[in-house]
Structure formats: structure tokens, C-alpha cells
Amino acid sequence: MKILIGTQNEEKVGTAASVLKELLPVDQFTLTGMDVPSGYGETPVDEETKLGAYNRAKALMAEYECDYAIGIESGIIERYGDVYEEAWCCVMSPNTTVYGYSSGLKVPEVITRKMKAEGLEHYQALRSDEIKDLLIEKSRKDTWGNYSAMLLARRISFEESMRNALVQLFAPSDSLYSK
Predict the structure, then answer these.
(1) Domain boundaries, position 40
(2) pLDDT tens readout for residues 33-56
(3) Residue 113 lies in a domain
(4) What is the pLDDT of residue 136?
(5) How many CB atoms lie within 10 A of CB 16?
(6) In the 3-class helix/strand/coil scheme, how is the chain assigned residue by residue?
(7) CB of 39 within 8 A of CB of 57?
(8) Does residue 86 fall inside a structural domain?
């Protein structure tokens, strides 16, 4: 089974491989990362995150021959007056499309205050000198790691969203997804 994922980001490809290995025998699939656009900016907001994952999977299905296409996207959403970062995964085959998303981690107030005060997008606030000075050097690309001093890693959100989507397709025959 040929599976493509709409990124060449090693962390996302590795996460997809790890989750697939939980659900399928290793000799039953190949996984390849391909760069395709999400259609949204660097940090999608609200429904753009889900749609970005969909756009990546759809682009793969349209441009390449594969059995399944995986789109993964991380973005921010406002809920109940707070801003959270979460990930969405879309898995598409010629006959079906399924989604999964992760839990959200609250974006720290120091970042959301800067976003609001200066009219910045999330990624712009993270790249500001004020915020960069607060970051742990080794975690500059890991937002969840930055938020939590490396107690949590963004990979958790990728795993969770991918697992929540892929289990719908590859769950054991005695699962309710198979009924």
C-alpha cells in the first residue's frame, strides 16, 4: 500500500510512520513525504487548520498515484476566550476522507498579549526579539516545547491527530469503525 504525506518535515513524516506501524504491519505500506501547499499562511487560524490538512491530502491525490494521502496541519484556534494550538489530520483515498484532530495546548499569555497588542500573527510574535529571548535554544522550532520548557513536544499533537484519523481506516475488524 502506497501512502503519501503532504510534507517533507522529518518530524511529521517520522510521526506518521510511527503511528502507521501501530496500526499496520510494516511490510504492508510505504510512506513518502511530498511537499504540497496547504493554501494557508504559516500559522493557520481556526477552520484554516482543518482545511489546510484537507488541501494537502487533496493535492497529493490529484498529483500522485497513491492508495492514501495524508495531510497534516498545525494551527491556532480561539475557544472560550483563550487561544490554543492544535493539529488536524486528513486522510484521503479515492473512496473516502476522514479527519482527526489533537487536543489543544493553550498558547501562553506572553505570546497572546504580544499578538493582541501589536496586531501580530502567532508566528510573528514567536519570532519577535522579546519572545525569542525567552525561548530554550534547542526548542526554537517546537512551539509546544517552547510553551512548556520541553515538558511537552508538538509531536504529541501530530501523533494524536494522525492516530485519530488513521484508526478510522485501519482499526481491527472487531472495532466499531469496522461495523
Answers:
(1) 2-104+153-174
(2) 999 999 999 999 999 999 999 999
(3) no
(4) 77
(5) 24
(6) CEEEECCCCHHHHHHHHHHHHHHCCHHHCEEEECCCCCCCCCCCECHHHHHHHHHHHHHHHHHCCCCEEEEEEEEEEEECCEEEEEEEEEEECCCCEEEEECCCEECCHHHHHHHHHHCCCHHHHHHCHHHHCCCCHHHCCCHHHHHHCCCCCCHHHHHHHHHHHHHHHHCCCCCHHHC
(7) no
(8) yes
Q: What is the arithmetic mean of pLDDT over 158-174?
A: 95
* CATH (domain of 25): 3.90.950.10
80 lies in some domain: yes
Rounded CA-CA distance 39/54 in Å is 10
d(CA 167, CA 51): 20
Name residue 123's amino acid.
Y
Bridge partner residues of 3 (DSSP) = 31, 68
Return the number of other C-beta atoms located less than 10 Å from residue 148's C-beta. Answer: 15
- Mean pLDDT of the residues in the chain: 94
Smallest Cα–Cα separation from 64: which of 100, 94, 98, 41? Answer: 94
User: How many domains are contained in the chain?
Assistant: 1
Vertex 46 angle, CA 44 and 52, to 5°:
45
Task: Report whether 64 contacts 4 (CB < 8 A).
Answer: yes
Provide the whole-model pTM. 0.94
Question: Residue 136, Cα to own-chain centre: how many angstroms?
Answer: 22
Q: How confident is the model at residue 105 (pLDDT cuts 50, 70, 90)?
A: very high
